[in-house]
Design goal:
about 375 residues; about 35% helix; nine-stranded mixed β-sheet; alpha/beta
């Protein structure tokens, strides 16, 4: 039986949509009883519980409003997601632990049988939470540099100490855990010593490390890595990758970081995957502003339920535009959604940055500089 296989109330397997189908969800007749059933290829939902955060990071691009989803709203959407056959739910923000009902929300996700992923700055996680957090599929702690630099980037004294404490508690509790580091001018010289420190404090029980270039708008371009920092950055990343190979730590974005670093760091051009993008038919984002089939297309679908959102005309348009290469595109290789997307976006970017420009996969113009 496939992990994606679901069943009608009568017990018969629900058929999967045709791979060429671009609609987010389709209603099919159960082959056994004829009942109308919803079929989709959705795998993951990303839930931004609120825009609130206890940090004021220099690279933060959160909207100014502080809207928050209620626990009841999240419960309802998670139940529909599980009903649709989604397997993974991730929680982000803002800072998820700012939400006063984060623990009941996590518990309900566990009860629904969802694999639960969570990203945190690590400052609000308490020892008494560890028993419940042990049910997480993975816990990612955002750590950008060693103490003084990290605290300056996060504009929060003691941020580094708190993040390391959370990482140590998680690793000691047996939780699959890793880190996310935002590559920027301020920390470009500290990536290797940071990795060595994280490996030490977790006793070698670090499962993965992720490095992503800082997201920028023209007003914050000074945060980007400078050209003269790239050689040292490349050397550090190579040494981190080699150390990961020795220690069994998974090194995320290996191809982008080691083989195409300049392309990975470039944030000024948008690209679409060659062959179209299937992400709006695999992934959905949810925040107090509504539902998003892709965070980057910018279409918020306000609906009373997840199903209503996915059956809307806007959802069909977003998915169709992505599949047909008509979407706004993504800037650089940062997101690494899945292997299909990685291969398509890398091919599209290498076409233009090589010797054969392809206007169908690369978008230029002043608006292409804003994500």
């Amino acid at each position: 039986m496939s992990d994606r296989e679901r069943h009608c109330a009568c017990g018969a397997a629900i058929p999967q949509p045709d791979p060429a189908e671009t609609r987010p969800v389709v209603r099919l007749a159960c082959p056994a009883c004829g009942r109308s059933v919803l079929a989709s290829r959705y795998e993951k939902m990303d839930v931004a519980l609120s825009e609130e955060c206890n940090f004021h990071c220099i690279m933060c691009r959160r909207p100014p409003e502080s809207g928050r989803l209620s626990a009841e709203e999240v419960f309802g959407v998670m139940e529909q997601a599980a009903e649709l056959g989604m397997k993974v739910i991730s929680f982000c923000g803002g800072e998820p632990f700012v939400h006063p009902e984060i623990l009941p929300i996590l518990q309900r996700a566990f009860e629904l049988g969802l694999a639960v992923q969570l990203t945190t700055n690590g400052s609000l996680v308490k020892p008494e939470m560890m028993e419940q957090l042990a049910g997480l599929d993975c816990l990612t702690v955002s750590i950008d540099a060693l103490g003084p630099t990290h605290d300056a980037i996060r504009r929060h004294p003691g941020a580094f100490e708190k993040a390391c404490r959370t990482l140590k508690m998680a690793s000691a509790a047996g939780i699959t855990c890793g880190t996310n580091t935002v590559i920027q001018r301020a920390n470009a010289a500290e990536l290797l010593p940071l990795f060595e420190h994280l490996l030490e404090i977790t006793g070698g029980r670090l499962h993965y490390v992720r490095h992503a270039p800082v997201e920028v708008v023209p007003e914050t371009a000074e945060l980007m890595v400078s050209a003269d920092q790239v050689p040292e950055l490349r050397s550090q990343l190579g040494r981190i990758a080699a150390a990961c190979d020795r220690t069994g730590v998974f090194f995320c974005h290996r191809t982008q970081l080691l083989d195409h670093l300049e392309l990975y760091l470039d944030k000024w051009t948008r690209h679409r995957p060659l062959g179209g993008c299937a992400i709006p038919r695999k992934f959905i984002g949810y925040s107090h502003l509504g539902f998003y089939l892709c965070w980057h297309q910018g279409h918020s679908i306000r609906a009373r339920s997840l199903i209503e959102a996915l059956e809307s005309a806007t959802a069909a348009e977003v998915a169709s535009d992505a599949a047909g290469g008509r979407c706004p595109g993504c800037n650089a290789l940062t997101y690494s959604w899945d292997e299909e997307w990685n291969a398509g976006i890398l091919a599209g970017k290498l076409v233009i940055d090589g010797k054969l420009p392809d206007p169908d996969t690369t978008i230029h113009g002043e608006w292409a500089h804003c994500d």
